[in-house]
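Assess this one:

_____
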Amino acid sequence: MDQSSGSGQKIYIHPLEESVLSLATGKIEQPPEVPQEVVITPPRAEEKPTAVEMVPVEKIKALSETINACMTFINKQVLGRSEIVKQAFLAILTGEHQLIISRTGMAKSLLARQIFACFDGAQVFEKQLTKDTMPENLFGAYDIEAMKKGKMIHNVEGSLVLSHFAFLDEIFDANDMLLRALLSILNEKQLVNGEQIVYSTLHSAIGAANYIRVTEVLEAVLDRFLYKSFIPENKDLYFQYSIDRIYQEHFGKVAIP
């Protein structure tokens, strides 16, 4: 596998069979150089030509600089959360979800909103979950006309299903029925409601909780959150003063990058 990068080079990821054969024979063929591109070839890509992605190196560098700038900006607004911010962007870059756990009053909501504010035009869904939260509160109200025909169809416009990002606060306060309904959205990125199957535009979600309760359903939900963070309490007086100073600047509201 040649992973060298830089101007005028490609990055090649060879199929597994080819890599094993190269190790066994000691013969490693070097791919031809093509300037200004990064090529990622997944296993068996020769059978699936459309699986090859070509991304200019300059675009990758620009994206990296933008992400670093966003993280720096967020870290100035929400103090002491640099590792969690980094983890959040890793979740977004990999299309996964993040769970943040801490006691109350640790600015989990502000942190999530500040992260999502970095994405212009993104549709963000936010909901504080309780034991009384129903599926229609997340997936959209039921279509009245469909109900007259005996069908339970969600009107997904403006719901979690058609959002790009989601912040689910107090996620473990939700009842098991709702959490079970969330599983397909978080994992398969689709709403499955009987005969209604809608592919979701949800890219990444951030869940927040003050505690973890253990049930069979919750174990499955925890498994959907690949990235998990815990915020310890910091009682340092200077740190608390710095937080108060930042709060006075924005009054607890999201700062626009």
Remarks:
- The domain at 78-250 is CATH 3.40.50.300 (Rossmann fold).
- The beta strands are 37-40, 53-56, 98-101, 124-128, 165-169, 190-193, 196-199, 204-209, 227-230.
